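One chain shown below:
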Amino acid sequence: MSRTDPVLRFEAAGIHCPTGGFFIDPWRPVARALITHAHADHARSGMGAYLCTPLTAAVLRHRLGDRRIEVMDYGETRQIGDARVSFHPAGHVPGSAQVRVEIGGEVWAVSGDYKTAADGLAEPFAPVRCHAFVTECTFGLPVFRWRPQAEVMAEVGAWWHETAATGKVAMLGAYSLGKAQRLLAALPEGPGPVLTHGAVEGVTQVLRDAGLALPETIPVTPDTDPKAHPGALVIAPPGALGTAWARRFGPSSTAFASGWMALRGIRRRRAGDRGFAVSDHADFAGLTDAVLATGCDRVFATHGYTASFARWLGDKGLEAGIVATEYTGEDIDAAPETETPAAAP
């Protein structure tokens, strides 16, 4: 396979393997899509057929309804046209995968979204040896360096206790898939129960049904009486905070769990009482370690600080390019997903 005949092409519909006849995380409808994980910017409706890991398939069915979805376990190899493909843990959210594509002895890998630090919930990241690596770089600047999870979760727990002591409700904004369940699994015991927005509860129940051990939660419904749950922590998508849905709980302290909370300016703009730097994406050190661990000599940077990260890679002697995609990375301004009735409490 020569450089003039690449394993993957970057086209208007997405990342395409012409000899395999499939796309990876396409953003336009295609006949066959390999999906790295179930976040809406990577797994869109309208595909003729989907191929993903079993956990991703479970969430996709919850989000998109009845679709033609095939599953493939981590490490399993499948021949699709002239391409041999396999999925490998990305560490981003439960079920997330990197996609390895081999044609004629040349190997390309597509990271999807990933993080290299284990969180105790998602399958730990596993580097994929390859010749070319398509990597996200959402947090591809040296300023982004995540603290140990246990330290940050202890701070979230302390804020929860402090908020309850003032008679207020602790409102925590977190992504419905991945971040919310990570918080549930890692937070210390609090002064009250955990209540969940419908978008969070729907995904959490899907993952429970798939075998993940997650703590008990109380879904918020139109009949929920906020006063009946003193000391509660409410977990909701960031876009739900500050809305009428959140105001029903009365006096509250609002916090956001996001990698963007590492930037003081964004913490101020969000106007929350607290910001906790918790991300399901790799920090700068994680990104650089992941790229170097592949042993690749060619890198394509997508969604994030692409120019800066590509320059850093070039300084390390790698051939680095930038690929424009429609992935959004970690967007704390996203509205809660409402594709299914479960997402609308």
Remarks:
- The mean pLDDT is 93.
- Helices lie at 54-64, 149-165, 179-186, 198-209, 244-247, 264-270, 284-294, 306-315.
